[in-house]
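Quick board copy: two proteins, each given as sequence then tokens.
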Amino acid sequence: MPMSPESLEELRSLIAVARKRPLSFGVCLGKQPEGAVMVLHRLKEPSILARQAKKEGDTPKVTFGTVEVKGKKMMLTCEGDVLPGMSKHLKRFLASADLKLKVVALDPTGALADDDGEPEEEAGEAQAEAPKPSSPEAESWAKVAPAMAVLVGRLLDAGHEKAEQIQAAWTRAENAADADNFTEALAIAAKLKPLLTAAPAPSGGPQPQGETSESPDARRWAALQPAMARLFETAMGLNPENRSQLNAAWAMAVEKAEAGDAAAALQIAARLKPALETVISKGATGTAAEIPKDVVPFQKSRVLWAGTKSGMMAEMAKLETAIVNACAGDPELAPVAAEATELHKRLQVFDSRLEDVLDRITNSPEGAQRTALKAEARLAIKDYSDALKEDFFMDVDNDNGFAPVAVASTARKALDAIAKVLG
């Protein structure tokens, strides 16, 4: 459905900010260009904006990344898919909102991937809007702001007890910078830094009572997840007829939790728990009596690996926050903090192949098919194990220089256990 007038007005104001610095964006193309949804934000991760755009939009055509506006050109650097024809679609959408911009889409490397097909206008206006020579304060702000924004965003998402004050102060800093008052922006950032860096990492294990930055829903999920995982494992071991639906529900709950939406994960778990308990209460009846002898170990392995990946993400988030806490606010170290916010992308190598093949093994009879699937699973384990031999994963746990974590060691332990099951 079309964006509301209020949302369009907010989009216009943030496009003005995107002339000064990159912003996160999420886009859902519409059935018609006028029905597109485009969401920009100063702090939130692009993937979060993509989910928001998809929820408000009317098609599954979604992507996300960062946006910059230079002169009359809007450049979308996509972290998600570059959607076919998206530039022309968005140019027409923006025109319907009285925003006359040429639109180009770039891939993650910065290479041109899609163009709206219209020639660029003369550079006169772009030159008129060229930035003024940078002052030392402006250069310091450019270095400090990205890392500080990450810290602010994380504490807001985690439900920090002073979230409103943090949001208000950071908005004042952003507004001051937008008005080229970098001295005031830096002064506000300096006052905020002690509060931001004193807060514990949202995903970082046990914390003293009364000092946690986690939201109540996040704490509830952290307490519930181990018991739910055991319940799910037990139910799946009985090979229920509705195992595909149960499997999909549990996967969705874990995905929501990993994306920071603990409330949604809890809602799914509340509906899933009775269904799992019903399966267990029936015991080894029906299809359970027909379970191949190796089904339970493979199902346990699948649950183990899914939980391991979730744990790795939490540990990596803890490391990211430790680095940002140590470096944000220092102009010399701010680039280190900005790079640290991308560390979680290192885990993309651990894709869904192993879970998928273990699930297929669970549904396969003894024989050639299962043998072939086990070989496929071993290949995935080899790929993951090879990745863990890279310098980054050899050093990440204890030699990162900021905080001890259990990213690689958690993965190695789980992969060794699964390899033994595969034989």
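And the next:
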Amino acid sequence: MGHVFARLAGYGMAVVPHWPYTVERDGGGSDAVRVTRWSATGPEHAVVTTDRAPDVRWPVGFRLESGNDPGDRTLFYLLGGADEAIFPQGPVPRVRLAAPDALAAPGQTVVDRRVDGDGVGVTELGYEHGGEPWWQAHWTVAWDEHRFLVVTAQAPATHADHTRVAAAEVAESMIRT
């Protein structure tokens, strides 16, 4: 894969990692960023620090990670410590999402549908995974008149509230102004 679609910008600079990678905060409460590139010889690390105030919209408790499979079409993942995941998809044709349950997979139940103040549609789902209750949601953000960007988030139900807030922040950052 080689080309990377994730770029972490802030502190007056941008970090563009080389695939496969992980980008995370370097320790609890730190504004330093640790970038790890996974190579055949093992992990290669770099820590980026600055004395400038942060301006990064990056949900707390999540690391940015590439998919491990070169065929993975997901641009990047935000992963939490309790199996939480947030990832973008698309742009997706609006026609593909026209059916009321288009975002629900077999075994999932729609538990909420709403449109927030910015016109972003949100569909929340419940399901069972590994014998435990899980939560999933999709934010549909208008890209143009024919397509949406979709931000998908999922987590064990016990971590849904934190993941919902983080995913809403990611979706809001994708609204075209």
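Board note added afterward: The first helix runs from residue 160 to 173.
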